[in-house]
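Escalation from tier 1.

The customer reports that the assembly of two entities below gives different structure tokens on two consecutive runs. Tier 1 could not reproduce it. I'm attaching the input and our single run for tier 2 to review.
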Amino acid sequence: MTATQVFYLPEGLPIPVPEADGLTRPYWEGLRREELWVQRCPQCQTWQWGAEWICHHCLAFDLDWVQVEGKGHIYSWERVWHPVHPALKPRRDPYIAVLVALPQAGNIRMLGNLLGDPQQAVVIGASVEVVFEHHNQAEPPYTLAHWRLV
Amino acid sequence: MASNNTVRSIRGRVAVAGIGETTYYKHGGSPEPEFKMALQAILAACADAGIDPREIDGFCSYSNDRNEPSRIAAALGLRDLKLSNMQWGGGGGGGAAAVGMAAAAIVAGFADCVVVFRALAQGQFQRFGAAVPAKTISGDQAFAAPYGVMSPGQRYAMKAMRFMHEYKIERSVLRAISMASYYHAQKNPRAVMYGRPLTEAAYDNSRWIVEPFRLFDCCMENDGAAALVLVPAERARDLAKPPIYLLGAAQGSEYRNAAPGHNAPTYGSASFTTVAPRLYEAAGVSPGDVNVVQSYENFTGGVLMSMVEHGFCQPEDANDFFVLEHLLAPHGKLPLNTSGGNLAECYMHGLELQIEAVRQARGESTAQVPDVEVSMVCSGPMVTPVSSCIFGSEATV
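Tier 1 run:
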């Protein structure tokens, strides 16, 4: 994408990077390839998100990372009007954050922004699909996973 | 062998002997350094109790309070510091836990005169409600901050939204909770919002902060300090004020409440579903015995869920239960946040709620409920861990 790229939220917000111990690295690297990767236990098949070093169900270490389809439904949401970060203060419009449940992956949830009119009515249960937003010029470059109604 | 329940209980064995606080200021408004305010509140609590500050031998606090017990002990010339205890995690959810740990330490014989305190000067340090400037972010916050979910309000609005969706909660519920705090603050000269009543229209017309929360659904941020002095029950009976006994305290975190990226299984929750039953069992009371409640308002939606989880109403009945007149002292069904609380008295990170609960049990509140015997505090909804405690008058022990 070029410098004319319009992001859902302005640049200047914190850039997500994996922890020093690398726990969530496969997730962030997956987003760069427009893929959603999450944890699944090879022993008991439990889906796990966010990432952890151990399966909360059977206590096996070394969980697998598996790719999941970017489809789900809105589990909860909020519309943010009051900016708390300097990068957001010049904005006039609110923005919407949604919590999306992925039924095909044990109903694990992912947080993102809901694309479209920031003043739209939001319905819990509505179906959504993932939209990847690449910040290629950032240092380091990163990709976010947003959602749009389907 | 004697019942373990008898041995493993703090019920009635420790009392709050003194309470103290500084003047409460708007955030950034304190003319005093934070540490000096902490000392002032501690000395005020000792004066209220009628004890020599040199009797203090322990401290409990929460949310990584910056004012270390060792420095306080040096400043006050304490002879023998026996307890320096910090509740781990949960921010304001640690208020009742700190009181509980102080009592546990006294019952265990670790210390004999323990101060629970909290001091905040937000002008001198970072505000809670402002994003911490950082170029990169990792861990749990990396799943939220790049999407503009950074402040406590932004972190918890979706919990309240989910609960309100599940139980068809009306906006009037949040408004009643907000207006109860403002109503009581008008009777409390200590309150930062004293002289600034809140009308229904002003609430309804206030700006959104983050839906479902309007401005008046959100706590203030303030400067000040507050302290309570706890001693063994028998020692408290010799002091200046009537002892207010701790009947029970409980803290905790629901199953996987801290699962990263908003993956707590019980999501639309204040996080008290496991704590409240333990609290009532420890205190030997039931919700119907509670005369007055102070419930931490970071956001009104959290108060709603806290009250439901502590058994004061079923979630399906919340629209009828949370009506302003039911929440007001002196004669409401459940007088709530009778000093003005975090919304309208002072955001002393909830320690002002502990102090108000003691005042109610003493009969000293500015919005006194008649004949209070059982006085409850819930600390810090939606965080993890949370805590709650129950105080009782002489009649309860």
